[in-house]
Design goal:
Low-confidence stretches: 7-17, 24-29, 364-382
Strand content: 15-25%
Mean pLDDT: 86
Shape: globular
Number of strands: 21
Number of helices: 16
């Protein structure tokens, strides 16, 4: 017993000795981090004490933290508390609010659409209404962020809203009770034809995979045998969601993505393995410069396994893995741990040596050639390393995913851009609906098919729209407007469809004039091997 007691005493002594030796070593031989932190602390102290004007130490600290990361990669960043919380809301896929989509036009908040079944919808607030007051406070001239802070709040809390409805003489007051609003990962899913299903994925949030499964189930029941997955302008999100969504379209055990780091613990490989109804169905994925991170993981894996075709423009080239470290004040340090590699071992990340040009789009596009799958092999680019897919096709690595078919999205004329920028389409259709809503409801009811087939934008309505824009001091060029005539017709009809059939109506009309979507549809008719499953 005495021996055990002596051993225990020696053990405690050894622990204490080790602790104090460590403290002594750190005192006389401080680490580089300790020395640096003391230096920063000293600078802050001296600045606060001696600087000519009063200073905000918190603001200086925030700037210093951002400065620390400025010499690293562009995705190793510091986020102040508000930015961190906003991002967390987006990735969680929900927040508490009143359920509207709005735009501030001429200093006035215009409700563009009301989420079906949401708080505003329940009390009878409509698209086209203008919010004048929130909790009896006039909000004319408020910016987006200030409006959002007023409209969001705790679940079940009440907000008083005063609206102006163009068809009514007096202002109308509503009491709206905030509720959970879901930020959907799948913006829309619909049929492009009797056999082609279309899914628009906005983000890889924590509910993305579940929403994809629901969308596929719905489209499958409607006869979908081929799929277009639209990842354009999808900035990414969670890695596990990217892996699960890729697995929806790969059969058997196949490498999806690997991560490589200087710390071996962060070297990982992720594989498919589950069986889904979509494993062996033809697939086209749409990407563009706004497709990043998780979007590039999906597109890269599908391309490397010759599982489908990629159409659009070269993606952004964000292939870095970040770990989030939330600090005591709810700020966040997001630090890069590893890099993403596709199954063919292509590095997704583009160069960030010239940080000033990092977010500038490379407009050098490969010419779209005939309907073949080797035209990108003619690319003259000494900076791009050549890799090979499972089927032996050449693919290139110079940051991002290069599509099999490079097709630039339709370019807008300056006149069309101004019409969008000044919200002319929304304002004109809201005015149109004040006079024609009841007639449209009476004629079409809930039958979108009838509306899509029968309702046409007339030449007279087109001319009336242009006159409306001119009256609102939007400068339009005759030749440009006529060049975009088909697009303007589609946009006007889409805005009306959105009023009655929400996103389903809007997307259905706009996809008809989307050249990349139309290209995808044509590719399904080529019966080429790369739209078949290669085992």
């Amino acid at each position: 017993m005495k021996i055990l007691r002596n051993k225990f005493v020696l053990f405690i002594f050894a622990l204490l000795l080790g602790y104090y030796l460590k403290e002594i070593v750190l005192t006389f031989f401080p680490s580089k981090i300790d020395a640096a932190s003391e230096k920063v602390k000293k600078i802050l102290y001296l600045t606060e004490k001696y600087y000519v004007d009063d200073i905000d130490v918190d603001s200086l600290t925030e700037n210093a933290l951002s400065g620390i990361f400025s010499s690293l990669d562009p995705h190793t960043i510091y986020l102040p508390p508000q930015e961190h919380l906003a991002y967390a809301e987006e990735m969680d896929g929900k927040f508490f609010g009143i359920g509207i989509e709005f735009a501030i036009i001429n200093d006035t908040l215009n409700i563009i659409s009301v989420i079906p079944g949401g708080p505003c919808d329940k009390v009878g607030i409509q698209s086209g209404d203008k919010i004048i007051k929130v909790n009896n406070k006039n909000i004319l001239g408020y910016k987006n962020d200030k409006v959002i802070s007023l409209l969001r709040g705790d679940s079940g809390s009440k907000v008083s809203i005063t609206i102006c409805r163009p068809s009514k003489k007096d202002l109308i007051n509503f009491n709206v009770y905030r509720d959970e609003i879901t930020l959907e990962a799948v913006d829309v899913s619909l049929m492009l034809s009797d056999s082609i299903g279309y899914i628009k994925l906005l983000r890889f949030s924590e509910n993305a995979f579940d929403e994809m499964q629901k969308a596929i189930k719905k489209l499958s029941e409607r006869g979908a045998k081929k799929y277009v997955l639209d990842l354009r302008n999808n900035p990414g999100g969670y890695l596990d969601q990217a892996v699960k969504i890729t697995d929806l379209f790969l059969s058997g055990k196949k490498l999806i993505v690997s991560t490589k780091s200087r710390i071996s613990d962060y070297n990982e490989s992720f594989y498919s393995g589950r069986t889904f109804v979509t494993d062996k169905l033809p697939l086209v994925i749409l990407i563009n410069y706004g497709s990043a991170s998780a979007s590039e993981i999906v597109a890269g894996a599908i391309q490397d396994w010759d599982r489908g075709l990629i159409v659009g423009e070269t993606s952004f080239g964000k292939g870095l893995v970040q770990q989030s470290f939330v600090l005591n004040d709810n700020s966040e340090a997001r630090i890069t741990l590893a890099k993403y590699y596709t199954p063919s071992n292509r590095l997704i990340q583009k160069s960030y040596q010239k940080r000033s040009n990092y977010y500038t789009k490379d407009t050098t596009l490969i010419r779209e050639d005939k309907l073949n799958y080797d035209h990108i092999a003619d690319r003259k680019d000494s900076l791009s390393k050549v890799y090979y897919t499972k089927g032996g096709r050449k693919v290139y690595a110079n940051g991002g995913i290069t599509p099999d078919f490079i097709l630039k999205q339709n370019e807008y004329t300056m006149s069309y851009i101004l019409l969008l920028k000044e919200n002319m389409f929304i304002q004109f259709i809201q005015k149109y609906l004040v006079a024609n809503r009841k007639e449209l409801q009476s004629r079409y009811g809930k039958d979108y098919g009838k509306f899509a087939k029968e309702f046409q934008i007339s030449e007279g309505m087109f001319n009336e729209f242009i006159s409306f824009a001119i009256a609102n001091k939007v400068k339009t060029n005759y030749n440009e407007v006529n060049k975009d005539k088909t697009l303007i017709y589609a946009k006007l009809k889409a805005e009306i469809a959105k009023e009655f059939w929400y996103k389903q109506g809007w997307y259905t009309e706009m996809l008809k004039v989307d050249n990349q979507v139309q290209k995808a549809i044509k590719l399904f008719d080529t019966n080429n091997n790369y739209l078949k499953v290669n085992e």
